[in-house]
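Model: You mentioned two targets. I'll fold them one after the other.
Researcher: Yes, keep them separate.
Model: Target one:
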Amino acid sequence: MEREKVIARVRKLYAMSQESASSPNEAEIALRRCHSLMSRFGVTISELETSEYGSSTIGRNFRKVPSYVTLLSSAVALLHDCICVDSEEIEFRGFSLDAEVAKLTYHYLAESMERSLQLRKKAGDVQPGRSASFDYRVGFGISVLNRCRQIHKERIESEQAAQRSACNDSTYGSSLVVLKRELVEEHCTKDIQGSRKRTVRFRNGTAHMAGASDGSDVSLKNQVGHKNGIEIENGI
């Protein structure tokens, strides 16, 4: 096959393996064929991306970024293979398409959080006032971030398993998720002088628990992406 066709095929298979609409079986098959073709033809992770590196920002010029904004944006960055830069505003850095989708996903989650908070207030589950609302949002953000960390971990483990299967032995390298992350960090963090650690505090236990519960239920499926519509045929 012409190399361009091989790369296009690998790119489609990889996209399908990451598509939340795919069934687990379809995603696994796509991932195995993706790794098999990459190994056979020497396709690198950088060849799977068609866009240049870019960034997107959310919010406004914060005097101080609220901790729940940092929590949600960190979760979104994991979902979309981006670096999250926390300064006067939140910036997603990565491949251009990933950065734009991360921005849309953040807004979807933030809007879902605010709708759920208003429903909780009407039901009397969250008391009026800024303090209880803040604690609800922190609980929501922590829950979403923990879920995204687990999704990220499972993606890496799934890709490593598929790679081992495709290679038919125990010799395999890093997963595509890890390799992509390394590329993004190499190209998008040169001006970052280090990260700041934040201590997340909350006071209202009831409001916090309500937020955590709603954060565990909010959909993390692809809300803003496209359906690839790729058929998995025999062979490659």
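Model: Target two:
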Amino acid sequence: MKQVQNIIFDLGGIFLNIDYLKTEQAFIDLGVANFRELYSQHFASVLFEDLETGKISPTVFYGKFRQLSSTNLSDEDIQHAWNAMLLDFPIERLQWLNTIKSKYKIYLFSNTNQIHYDCFIEIVNQLMGGKQNFNDYFIKAYYSHLLGLRKPYKESFTAILEEQNLVAAETLFIDDTLKNIEGAQLAGLQTIHLVPPAQVTALGL
């Protein structure tokens, strides 16, 4: 095993606290009883994959979600329920990033979408008083809706390695979802499956 030179971090469950059940419950409260069949930590239906790979806009997503769920929910109702899973950024994790980036080349790779992106960037802006952009902690932050590829597919990891000219065997990927870890391993990366309540700041990197 080669020494780690580069680290690619997941976002949710690593830096941003996430509770998927809050979004599921928010949609149940809105009358969408089968939301788990559409999206969960471990599964995304075609509609949500399209949103998370930037194939459809939030506006199109809202309309298609109404059709799929047979509801008349407003865009705002859907947005609020969809963002309910996004909790907080413990500031010590962001402070830790300032330390770790002096030892490794660090990157971010998140399965996300424009709706969530706008929400969590605002969370960080409020936390930091607008003094530091979250993306600036990394050499580059990759978001699936902008990359056009999402985890756990091997091709998504390969695209990042090729763009950044990184050696897979020298690159560590850290994620809280096993399917994503398995995808990274197929691309030849070293991996850490960070299972809560384990904290990234306690890994001894």
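Researcher: Noted. Anything on target two?
Model: The chain has two domains: 6-17+88-202, 20-83.
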